[in-house]
Specification:
This protein has 328 residues and is mostly beta strands. The chain has two domains: 1-37; 45-326, TolB, C-terminal domain (Neuraminidase, 6 Propeller). 11% of the residues lie in helices and 45% in strands. It is globular and about 50 Å long.
């Protein structure tokens, strides 16, 4: 009987040792998987910011599962009320600093070894920006050169700068409307501008420097824009204050094979009761990520089905503004 008891005791000890090893292996695998996920592309998010306690005046980065990777990506400068972000072809970063007394487009380095981005100076100052909101970069076909476009909430126009930040022109085809996001379609050379007050998304043809009314999209209070070049689809977020739900519409803006203007066919619609005021939109393959400013979450949808998959982040510490995918 004593021999059996001793044998059972040995078996129990061995079992505990094996379970401990297995637990450590799984923990190490989990940590390695988390480390691996931080080495590639990630989501950057800006917030309303300001001077109130708890305001976030920097960029936070998240993985695609909603895990916070860095609560302060930027170093070397003090920012306030950040809005749109843009990764340039050289992997450096532009950020719209929209404070009314400090309007500028800040320029940050490519990612360092720790994922941080260091302040390099201002790409543009306050001379031609007034409460900047949207950023877009691409080819001005009439000039055969890359340029930066900035939408301004207080001057009600879009400013065009050269690739090094030199002022070129003001694009103005508006009254006293509320301009929000802008997006450039490199497939057609069209710059899209969300005009929230007029319930339209306007199209500016860079080849002729004209506002083409045939490119106009009629969407109730458009705010967020995102151009998916691989699909030739423009995503438009609608901030309809009278609706009990938020909406994002996807339009096919490709040019017909025989030429002419895009048919602007609606290809998909995304909606949810807890997705009101969709300000930021990004797409990765079939995954559509939407920031809901009023509800304070980041929702995920399937582009092919329009299905709401769930929430990547359900609650943020400050009011969300914009989102991009950063390569690092």
């Amino acid at each position: 009987m004593r021999v059996i008891s001793n044998a059972l005791a040995v078996l129990l000890v061995l079992l505990c040792v094996c379970m401990g090893i297995s637990s450590r292996v799984h923990a190490e695998q989990s940590l390695n998987a988390r480390a691996s996920s931080t080495n590639g592309s990630r989501l950057y998010i800006t917030f309303h910011g300001g001077s109130d306690d708890g305001s976030i005046n920097t960029i936070q980065s998240y993985d695609f599962d909603g895990n916070l990777l860095d609560d302060d990506v930027l170093t070397g400068d003090t920012q306030s009320e950040l809005r749109s972000m843009l990764v340039l072809p050289d992997q450096t970063l532009l950020v719209a600093n929209s404070h009314k007394n400090d309007s500028r487009i800040a320029h940050y380095s490519a990612c360092g070894a720790n994922g941080k981005r260091k302040y390099m100076g201002d790409f543009t100052g306050a001379a031609h920006t007034a409460h900047p909101y949207g950023l877009a970069f691409g080819a001005d076909l009439a000039k055969a050169d890359n340029v930066l476009w900035v939408s301004n909430q207080d001057s009600f126009d879009v400013t065009q700068f050269g690739a090094t930040g030199t002022f070129q022109q003001q694009l103005r085809a508006f009254g006293t409307e509320e301009l929000r996001s802008i997006a450039y379609n490199a497939n057609t050379g069209v710059l899209y501008v969300a005009n929230e007050d007029e319930d339209t998304v306007l199209g500016f043809e860079t080849s002729s420097h004209t506002w083409n009314t045939a490119l106009k999209l009629n969407v109730t209070t458009p705010v967020g824009l995102f151009m998916d070049l691989s699909k030739n689809v423009l995503f438009v977020g609608s901030n309809n204050a009278n609706s009990t739900a938020g909406f994002v519409y996807a339009f096919d803006v490709s040019v017909p094979a025989n030429g002419g203007v895009p048919a602007n066919k609606l290809t998909q619609r995304f909606t949810h009761a807890h997705m009101k005021h969709p300000t930021g939109i990004v797409v990765r393959n079939d995954e559509v990520y939407i920031l809901a400013q009023k509800d304070g979450n980041l929702a995920q949808f399937s582009y092919s089905t329009g299905e709401h998959i769930g929430y990547v982040v359900e609650d943020f510490d400050d009011t969300v503004e914009q989102i991009i995918i950063s390569p690092c």
